[in-house]
Structure formats: structure tokens, C-alpha cells
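Notes to self after the Tuesday call (sharing in case useful).
The group wants a holo model before anyone commits to mutagenesis around the pocket. I volunteered. Ligand is magnesium ion. Logging inputs and output together so the record is complete.
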Amino acid sequence: MKKDFLLSVIVPVYNEEGGIGSLMERLLPVVEQYKYEVIFVDDGSKDGTVADIKVYTEKNKHIKLISFVRNFSHQTALTCGYLHAQGDAVVSIDADLQDPPELIHEMILKWQEGYKVIYARRSARHESLFKTATADMFYRLINFLSDTEIPHNVGDFRLIDRDVVEMLNKLPEHARFLRGLVAWGGFSSAYVSFERKERVNGETHYPFKKMMGFALNGIVSFSSKPLRFATHVGFLCAVLGFVGIVYAISRRLFLPHEYWVTGWTTIFVSIMFFGGMQLIAIGIIGEYISRIYTELQNRPQFLVKEKVNI
Ligand code: UDP
Ligand code: MG
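Result:
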């Protein structure tokens, strides 16, 4: 195995106090076999996470820290990590040991075979049924909607080559759905498998609401089919409406007047139906407009409070 390369490991952290020690106990023996840097991106933690990390940055220059002024998002923290990583191979890994650091060896072997993207695929997930079921639904939906094939059962634990990092760093998008962007690049890819365990320490930072936001962002970033769907439904409703109008007028013209006031049910049902359809269509359009709006504002993706060893 060729060992003359720099390995960067990016660890996004948000309120992971107490978990940093156990992470380092397993991560360090792995990375120390290479030339390495570990970049912690603190996503505005409010607990002792930063202090925990500084214990390591003080005695080891290869361990680096970038701190945000506030919580931005996991995807933003990763984006910032990619912008600062110098490595020839760059691994992103969660801080909670749900992604086993030992797998990095296997990823490097695959990378040295020439693949540019190495995904860690979850062969089994030891997580709540709710989490696995919603994740599965999400991947099915996004692959149904999107033209870019986004791999199933793959999270943000992956190794990417320098070329892929450069590609990502050049993309101007603000609301980043990195799994999609990496797949969109179309680089040669390979898989290594692992079993995803429960979190070692603390709780997930992806409660249902945040997960929905993440999923919606992924869909809006990678598909305009919902807009087309809105148009199709609108068109269908318009045709039905037209038929309804012809029917209503014919009744009025050709039936005796005792029949005229009947049909309240039809009116009520159709108003409800078309009203609902219109709201859905407007909502879908709104999602895309809000995307255009944030891109136009062109605000920085994150604000850095502090950098250590960088
Ligand atoms: N994380 C982050 N910012 C956030 C939420 C999470 O940087 O706003 C980090 C978190 O510290 C962890 C990783 O992203 O290292 C994955 O988060 P988590 O384990 O909570 O997600 P899950 O594994 O439940 O999907
Ligand atoms: Mg986790």
C-alpha cells in the first residue's frame, strides 16, 4: 500500500460533550498510520465540546478546529471542512461513533485501487424502526423524483479524492445536499459495508422536524419534478372544471327549474378539492422560490468564530 499521501478527516460536531474522548481513542490509532490531519468543525456547540477538542489541539498540531459563531447545519459544517481540508483523500465521519473509524483503512484501500468516491454503506442499521423506515422512504422518493441517482443506505460517511473536493468547493450552491452533489459529480465510486450502531453518547441532533427539512432540501435541490407535478395536476383540475361548467350550464338550460338548486354537495366538494389542489401547487412553487431567494441573497454559508492549528 502506498503511504505517501495526506489523509484528512473531517468531523462535524454539535454538542458532543463527553463523546470526543471516546471518538479520539478509536480514531487516532487509525489515522496515525498515515500522514494525517483531523479537522473538527464545531457547528456552534453550546456545551463543553470545544474545550474537549482543545485538549487534543494543544498537544497535537495535526488536530485542527474551526468553530462557527452559531449553529448552521451539519451539511454546512461538512462544506466548511471540505474548504479547509488539504488531504489527497478526505474522509467525513460523524462524531458519535455510529460510523466506525476502523473502516477508514478499507476505504483507503479502495481509493488506492483508483476509485474517486468510496461510500460506507449501512448493511444493517441498529437504530429505531422509525428512523430506518423514514430514511428508506426518503431514498425511494428522492430517487423516484431525481435524475441524479443517489445511493441508498449511504450517509455522509465517505472518502472522496482531492478531485472531488475541488469540484465540491467550486459549486456556488448555498443550500447544500452533499450526498446528492457528490453523486451528481459522476466520479467512479465503490462501496464498503458496515453495521450502523446506536449512538454511543448523547442524543441525535436530527429530530423529526430537522429530518423533514433535510429531506425537503434534498428533493428541491435535485428535482424539479414536483413543479411539473403541480402543473399536471393543475391542468387535470382545469379540464375537470371545464367539464363541470358545461354540465352545470346544460342542467340550467335543459332541466325544469325544480332541479336548479340541487347540487350543493357537488359545489362544496369541488371547491374543497380545487382549493386544496391550488394550495398544494402554490406551496410547491413557494419552496422553489424560497430557494431562489436564498441563493440570490448570497450570504456567506457560515461565520467562523475561531480557528486552531489552521
Ligand atoms: N451535527 C452538526 N450540526 C448539527 C447537527 C449535527 O454538526 O446541527 C453533527 C453531529 O455532532 C454528528 C453528526 O453531525 O457528528 C451527525 O449528527 P447526528 O448523529 O445527530 O445525526 P444522526 O446520526 O442521528 O443522523
Ligand atoms: Mg449519529
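Two things stood out.
Residues 225-297 form one domain.
The chain has ten helices and eight strands.
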